[in-house]
Specification:
single chain, alpha/beta, Cobalt-precorrin-4 Transmethylase, domain 1
């Protein structure tokens, strides 16, 4: 489905929509061994997720100063506007456009350990099969 709404409009309504949806979501976090120690020491980590997990993850970690890699495509602009209003630091780029810029921005965010030092990277592609990591 192609959205034809201005990204700035979507950014204004997205937090309210996420607030309503977020009230219905329940989270059960299961961290791998050693993860709690890494988080307690505020070490930089990378969170990798699938597209379908994006909204709950954005809601759950809002306002923590996390850096998010967001596509420079038009649909990425919707996400960038909404994520920015939820307190995310934005790194723009994707595998097709701005890959070097996105990688350097992500590395900079990890080195600076912004806030709690998390970065979100998406590994699946909208042009390929869902839940399959794409190759380089």
């Amino acid at each position: 489905m192609k959205l034809k709404l201005p990204p700035a409009f979507v950014a204004r309504i997205a937090p309210a929509i996420l607030r309503v949806l977020g009230a219905t979501w329940r989270f059960d976090a299961r961290l791998p061994d050693g993860a709690e120690d890494v988080l307690a020491r505020r070490r930089a980590v990378v969170i990798v997720l699938w597209h379908e997990e994006l909204l709950p993850i954005l809601w759950r970690h809002r306002g923590l100063g996390i850096s998010a890699v967001v596509s420079v495509a038009r649909d990425g602009q919707y996400l960038a506007e909404a994520a920015g209003r939820l307190g995310y630091e934005l790194i723009r780029g994707s595998s097709r456009r701005g890959a070097t810029q996105a990688l350097l921005g992500a590395l900079r965010a990890l080195e600076e350990r912004r806030s709690i030092g998390k970065s979100i990277l998406r590994v699946d592609s909208s042009t390929r099969q869902r839940i399959v990591a794409k190759s380089a």
